[in-house]
Write a structure and sequence with these properties.
Elements: H1 3-21, H2 24-50, H3 60-81, H4 92-112, H5 114-126, H6 128-131, H7 144-147
Helix pairs in contact: 1-2, 1-4, 2-3, 3-4
């Protein structure tokens, strides 16, 4: 995950902490702050796809779609909290939307790191010597004269 993608995750994690602490208004404002952070992260992943000459990660399109899903979940949670914020109550559906958002963030991190995981698995399959591009020592069974031309012996 990039730095732009970590800010929304941190804000949504803070929402769960403030929900547990009972600070309903603070968690609502943290959700509102997460909206532009998610939009910026989503636009950055879209920019990587559309920029000519750039080499985007293969799974960047899926990461961008997951940004839209997290944005919708945050907006749903904020919309459910807004009418009952003055009462100090947190609707269960709003909490469920925040938890679902965290799950989508985990899926997003896994999808984004799939190329690195594939490279690491490929390196392990090739073995240490091949992955480092080293040549194993060749044991000579015969001396140099065995490789010489017949006329040179």
């Amino acid at each position: 995950m990039t730095r732009r993608e970590l800010l929304p995750v941190a804000l949504v994690l803070l929402v769960t902490i403030t929900d547990a602490a009972g600070a309903v208004t603070l968690s609502f404002y943290l959700l509102l702050a997460a909206v532009p952070a998610i939009v910026v992260a989503g636009l950055a992943s879209l920019e990587e796809l559309l920029q000519p000459g750039a080499h985007p990660l293969p799974n960047r399109r899926a990461v961008g779609i997951l940004h839209v899903v997290t944005l919708l979940l945050v907006l749903i949670s904020a919309a459910l909290r807004a009418p009952v914020r003055a009462e100090g109550a947190i609707p269960r559906a709003a909490v469920s939307a925040v938890i679902a958002c965290l799950v989508v963030f985990v899926v997003q991190a896994l999808v984004g790191s799939m190329p690195a995981i594939r490279r690491a698995c490929a390196r392990q399959r090739l073995g240490g010597v091949t992955a480092l591009r080293l040549r194993p020592p060749v044991v000579q069974l015969f001396g140099d004269e065995a490789l010489a031309e017949p006329g040179e012996r």
